[in-house]
Structures are given as C-alpha cells and as structure tokens.
C-alpha cells in the first residue's frame, strides 16, 4: 500500500502529523506528557513581498487533522 496518503487525498505533512498524533496517543501517560510538550513547538512561516515580511502563520493551525 505505497503512498496511501495520496489515495486519502492528504499531503505528506498532514499524513506525518496524523501518524505522529497516533503514536503520541499510544504512549503511556508519562511519556505522552513529554511528547505533548514537544508537540507545542510548531512551524511558522511568513510570505515576503517587496522586501517586507508578511504575517506569521502557524502551519499546524492550517492543516486539519
């Protein structure tokens, strides 16, 4: 079942986020808390136009899981 994420019509980033969430949910409570703290760190990006930075956007907020 190669590239099942393509058949599900999701990007690879969305697919990896879904897998990571499933793994975190399978952890025991103590390890889950540590993993959830790491999950709070997110990726942000901003579009640049005419030498000026646009609004910072959180990638996780834009990708539905």
Automatic annotation (TrEMBL):
Source domain of life: Eukaryota
InterPro entries: ATP_synth_F1_esu_mt (IPR006721), ATP_synth_F1_esu_sf_mt (IPR036742)
CDD domains the UniProt entry points to: F1-ATPase_epsilon (cd12153)
SUPFAM superfamilies associated with the record: Epsilon subunit of mitochondrial F1F0-ATP synthase
Pfam family, one: ATP-synt_Eps
Secretion signal span: none
Family according to the record: Belongs to the eukaryotic ATPase epsilon family.
Protein's name according to its UniProt entry: Mitochondrial ATP synthase epsilon chain
Organism of provenance: Basidiobolus ranarum
């Amino acid at each position: 079942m190669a590239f099942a994420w393509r058949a599900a019509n999701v990007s690879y980033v969305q697919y990896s986020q879904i897998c990571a969430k499933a793994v975190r949910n399978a952890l025991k409570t103590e390890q889950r808390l540590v993993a959830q703290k790491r999950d709070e760190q997110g990726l942000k990006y901003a579009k640049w136009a005419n030498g000026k930075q646009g609004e910072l956007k959180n990638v996780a907020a834009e990708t539905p899981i």
